[in-house]
Every structure is written in structure tokens, then in C-alpha cells.
Design a protein that fits this description.
The complex is a heterodimer of chains A (148) and B (250). Chain A has one helix spanning 2-22, and strands at 33-34, 39-40, 46-47, 51-52, 59-63, 69-75, 84-86, 96-98, 101-105, 116-123, 130-131, 134-137. With 148 residues, chain A is α+β, with helices and mostly antiparallel strands. In chain B, 12% of the residues lie in helices and 35% in strands. Chain B contains 1 helix and 15 strands, in the order H-E-E-E-E-E-E-E-E-E-E-E-E-E-E-E. In chain B, strands 2-9-8-13-14-3 form a 6-stranded mixed sheet, with no helix packed on it. In chain B, strands 4, 5, 6, 10, 12 and 15 form a 6-stranded mixed sheet that branches. Classes of the chains: A alpha+beta (148), B mainly beta (250).
């Protein structure tokens, strides 16, 4: 009986050790917030708010606008005054063409040292315009096809 | 000898456990994270001529400076029409909101909200390492009623946003609007899954719902006497601002 107790204790300690070594802290900002509903076209952009980026996962987007969107995913900082957020060329391939549906946008926002993200959105086809609709999050969980 | 055997068994068990957990993480990363070496230009797909697009603006200027017609500024108790969008087409007057009450609390406890009811990641530099509000940070709780008149049933409370306004130098000047971080609390939050749908709720056509939405506000940075909820932001004449006059303080 004592042997069994010792073995159980050893296994439990081993499990705790293994899990603590293998699973680092992993903060994530993946709550979906709405895209702007303003009018967009091939030459008219809409921008999201600036949100905190917590890790190197892709940006998530659910495009429900019925149009293919042209998206720049940017890193940014927001100094207090004057507040300026810069576009940073942090989207793989410079931009992402996001079809209607759920996709991830591959970026290196976090890798390049930015700790916030925002999107610049227009339509991907000349002559197509309308009001934007959908959700996004700066970090992602789960598996979605890449848009870029 | 028995002790040595036992120790060896324990070491082997540890190694096996460590290897299995690490392997699981590696498999997960294949699905969750970017492919390795994603910064290589050769990885980019070929683009056609239609991909010559409008140049990206170098920067976005904050604050959002605009003139707001007085008709577009509403008060607590007024009915606010919200648009919906279906396949790129704007549906006016799809939802009716009424901001019924706005209260300023010193913290969520005073508002009767527990820590585990908050969104899993609170945006903005408002909380300390222990999850407590930093000095000067207060909690704004807004109570709203919403009726779905003709919108899709899938809703998200981030369709409206909290802004801080800074009046211009004269009465005729444009106002400067500063975005506040997204809500920290939603009374009807969806708690299933991984938390990505925290802000979502369902409201079929013809039905009503009462909602409570809370934000942390850093009063060192924003004046609580000039807070607005904006609906239909940047959608021309549909853009409406509701000035939050706090009825009481908790």
C-alpha cells in the first residue's frame, strides 16, 4: 500500500513538473469585436479601433460584409498627446484579401515589437463598394485558413 | 537496488510525461500559429493586376476630430436608431436602443459585479498585476434596452463605443473624440467556448432585451463629464452620440 502511495505521489509530482515546464503563460486578446460599419470601396478605407496584441498568433477576421475585403493589419502605438497610430507594413505579403467567412491574417506585429493592432479595410475589387460588416480580434485561438 | 529501480522508473515517467505534453503543444502550434518562416517574401502568393490598390495611409490621426450637428447629440432616455448591414447594404433603423441609466462606480465590487464576470482580457492600461484598478481608474456601468426591429439576430455590443469628447476652443469648433478601450463587462455575455464570443448576444426580430455594459475609465486621462456612447460611427447622418450624464455615484 505504501509503495502505491509513493508511486502515486511521484507520478503526481512528475505531472506537475512536466506541465509547469511545458506550458508557459499565454495571454491572449481574442474577444471578437465589430468591424466598422462605414462605407468602403476600392479607394475608401475604414479603420478599426486600436486593440492590445498579446502574442504572435494571427489576427482573426470574420468577414460578413458579403464582399471580399482588402485588409492591412498594422501594429501601432498610441502616444497620449498627440495620439498617432502608424501603419507598419506588418501584414504578410503587405496585405490580405479576406473572402466572406472566417480567416486568419498572418502578421508579424508582435514579433516586430508592437503591442497593439488595428486594421485598415477597403474592398478588394474595383467597382465593388458597400458597408463593411464583421468581427475581428488581434489574437486568435483555434484553426482558420490563412487569408494571406 | 530496489530504490534505484524505483528512482529510474520515476525519472522515465517524468521524461515521458514531459515529452507527451511538449508533443501536444507542438501539434497545437501547427494549428494555432503562423507557419514557420512566415517572414520570407517568397512565401507570398502571386498577385494579379487588380491588386494595384489605393496606397495605405501612413498614419491615422487621433483624436477623431469632427463637427457633430446638435440633432445628432442625444441624452440618457432618448431612443437611438442603429443601422444593420446585410451583404454590404445598409438597413436603417434596424434596432432601437435606449440608454436608461449610466452610473459611475469606484470599482466592480461596488457595482455588484464579480471578477470572473469580466472579459478574459481587459484592454487598456487600467489594472495592476493583481487585477485591481490602478489609482484614478473608475468603472462606468451603462444600462440599455434594445429592440430588434429588422436586424439579423446575431448581435455584438461593440457596435457602439465609448468615447471621451474634448470641446473645441470655441462653441463652433469641431469636437475631438478619443476612443476608450472596449468594454470590460457585459451582463449577457456568452461564456461558452474559448471566450471569443464574450461580446455577442442573440436577439431575434421583434424581441427586446435589457443589457448592462461596463467600462473601466482612467480618470487621470479622461474627464467623466464628457463621455459619450456613439452609435453608427462614421456612417454619415446615422452617427449618433449619447451624452452620459451620471445619475448617481456608487
Amino acid at each position: 500500500m505504501k509503495k502505491l502511495q509513493k508511486l502515486s505521489l511521484s507520478l503526481a509530482l512528475s505531472l506537475i513538473l512536466a506541465v509547469s515546464l511545458a506550458l508557459p503563460a499565454f495571454a491572449s486578446n481574442h474577444s471578437d469585436t465589430n468591424l466598422p460599419t462605414s462605407f468602403i470601396s476600392y479607394t475608401t478605407n475604414a479603420t478599426t479601433g486600436v486593440r492590445a496584441k498579446q502574442n504572435t498568433t494571427s489576427v482573426y477576421m470574420n468577414n460578413t460584409s458579403g464582399m471580399t475585403l482588402w485588409v492591412y493589419a498594422n501594429g501601432g502605438s498610441k502616444p497620449s498627446n498627440p495620439s498617432v497610430t502608424y501603419s507598419t507594413g506588418t501584414t504578410r505579403g503587405n496585405y490580405a484579401k479576406v473572402l466572406p467567412g472566417k480567416y486568419r491574417i498572418v502578421t508579424w506585429i508582435y514579433e516586430n515589437g508592437y503591442r497593439s493592432a488595428w486594421l485598415n479595410i477597403s474592398t478588394a475589387t474595383s467597382g465593388v463598394s458597400g458597408n463593411c460588416k464583421g468581427q475581428w480580434s488581434p489574437d486568435s485561438v483555434g484553426s482558420y485558413p490563412p487569408a494571406n | 537496488m530496489v530504490k534505484i529501480k524505483r528512482a529510474m522508473v520515476n525519472i522515465v515517467a517524468t521524461i515521458l510525461l514531459f515529452a507527451s505534453v511538449t508533443a501536444c503543444n507542438s501539434i497545437k502550434s501547427v494549428f494555432d500559429n503562423e507557419p514557420q518562416g512566415h517572414q520570407q517574401e517568397g512565401d507570398v502568393q502571386q498577385k494579379g493586376q487588380e491588386d494595384i490598390h489605393t496606397p495605405i495611409p501612413d498614419e491615422i490621426q487621433f483624436p477623431d476630430k469632427k463637427e457633430v450637428p446638435s440633432d445628432n447629440i442625444l441624452n440618457v432616455g432618448d431612443i437611438v436608431s442603429e443601422i444593420d448591414v446585410e451583404n454590404g447594404k445598409l438597413i436603417p433603423d434596424a434596432l432601437a436602443y435606449t440608454v436608461e441609466k449610466a452610473t459611475l462606480f469606484s470599482g466592480i465590487t461596488e457595482a455588484g459585479i464579480s471578477q470572473d464576470a469580466l472579459v478574459h482580457f481587459v484592454e487598456g492600461d487600467v489594472l495592476d498585476e493583481d487585477g485591481n484598478p490602478k489609482p484614478g481608474v473608475r468603472f462606468v456601468l451603462v444600462e440599455l434596452a434594445v429592440k430588434n426591429k429588422s436586424a439579423l439576430a446575431e448581435r455584438n455590443i461593440t457596435s457602439f463605443q465609448l468615447l471621451s469628447a474634448e470641446p473645441g476652443e470655441s462653441a463652433t469648433d469641431s469636437m475631438n473624440f478619443f476612443d476608450l478601450p472596449y468594454p470590460a463587462y457585459f451582463s449577457n455575455a456568452t461564456r461558452t467556448g474559448n471566450g471569443s464570443e464574450y461580446y455577442a448576444y442573440n436577439l431575434p426580430v421583434g424581441q427586446n432585451k435589457n443589457l448592462k455594459v461596463g467600462w473601466y475609465v482612467d480618470t487621470n486621462e479622461y474627464d467623466t463629464s464628457d463621455l459619450y456612447l456613439v452609435f453608427n460611427r462614421d456612417v454619415d447622418e446615422h452617427e449618433k452620440f449619447v451624452k452620459l450624464d451620471f445619475q448617481q455615484e456608487g
